[in-house]
Amino acid sequence: MDEDVKRRALIAEALAAALGNVILGTGEPIELALPTGQVLPPRLSMVHVHIVRAVTDHLRGVARYYGGQAGAFGAVSTIYTQWMQVPAPEVVTTQLAAALAELRTEAGWCCHDDGVDGTGHFSRAFKLAAKAGDAYGIANAALHAGVTLVRSGHPNDALKFFQAGQIRLQGLAPGKPAPPPDDPRLPTLTARLSRQSATASALMGDREEATRCLAEANEGWEPRTAFERAGGNFVTAGIHLDLGQLDAAEHFAASAVRTYSESEGRYRRGHTQTELLLAEVHIRAGEPQGLTLAHHAIEQVKTLQSIAARRERLIPLATALDARPGTDARDLARTARQVAATRI
Fold first, then answer.
1. Distances from the Cα of 90 to the Cαs of 42, 52, 136, 183, in angstroms?
2. Cβ contacts of 215-223, under 8 Å, gap ≥ 24
3. pTM, entire model
4. How many whole angstroms separate alpha carbon 201 and alpha carbon 239?
5. Which of 98, 142, 233, 242 falls between 20 and 30 A from 213, CA-CA?
6. What single string gives the DSSP state of each residue in 63-120?
């Protein structure tokens, strides 16, 4: 299938999972061929669920530091998805499907970060979360699938994913209840869906809707971790930049950089991406330190495996540098484009 058909099919799967309908999609089964030399366990227990969640957490930490990791996520996804074929108590099967949905969601996101197609992972995430009756898992997969599109030239399609996630979290699908209100993960996911909806709306030129969604995201939102706080401020800074509000963009980007700096270097990918954004804001505003910030951020992004960070933040920075007079700015713009076209 070409890219447009893949996007439409995945949107259909997201809506079907959110609304509780039959999954349409591509017809691919959840299971994959077992790698040579791998043996299935004879029976599953909650230990196997904990293993999937622990591996997911570990690889997510590596991805947040270096970027990429599509290959590692893909390998473990292939192995662990096979466990759905193994006899187990119903509660274990349900919990395993939910854990695998999260693993597949992270795999799809990392494929995007590595510059490869993650549609298959997201498709399986929707199927697995629907099988588990996991409203949070469906909405989480919808969020990540949308984020891969929002700054890749398809904000309208991204918005459809965010809306599907919101439908599922709010319990608007007939016969499909919302997640338990005491789930501590809900406020952050709800805020992220609204904030990314604001991003999509801003990119589509709908300032009023972008402002409304951003206010909705910030209402009552209390980040649980430094990563959530920095990530929320980073996305908010990008929205203000898209709306041409440079002072607000600088405020939120600088706040995100400070938070990442206080996190003992655990989130190098996010930290570097935010530094690129902050540099772009300073370059657009014509501030003297913009070139220094840009040079530092370009050097930092060279050490990441993240293709998405290069495409989504280096190219806009290069464009801003091109618009600034002076040989130094033009040289930096040329370097930025060269780095954007490379991978490690």
1. 16, 17, 19, 22
2. 217/191, 217/192, 218/191, 220/187, 221/187, 221/188, 221/191, 222/187, 223/188
3. 0.92
4. 9
5. 98
6. HHHHS--HHHHHHHHHHHHGGGGS---HHHHHHHHHHHHHHHHHHHHHHHHHTS--HH
Residue-range domain boundaries for the chain? 1-176, 239-344
Distance between CA atoms of 240 and 95, rounded to whole angstroms? 39
Q: Which two tokens stand for residue 284?
A: 């657009």
pLDDT of residue 26: 41
Is the distance from CB of 123 to CB of 28 less than 8 angstroms?
yes
Contacts of 219 (CB under 8 A, 6+ apart): none
Which residues have a Cβ under 8 Å from the Cβ of 172 and sit 6 or more positions away?
none
Show the tokens assigned to 329.
Answer: 């700015």
Distance of CA 124 to the CA centre of its chain: 16
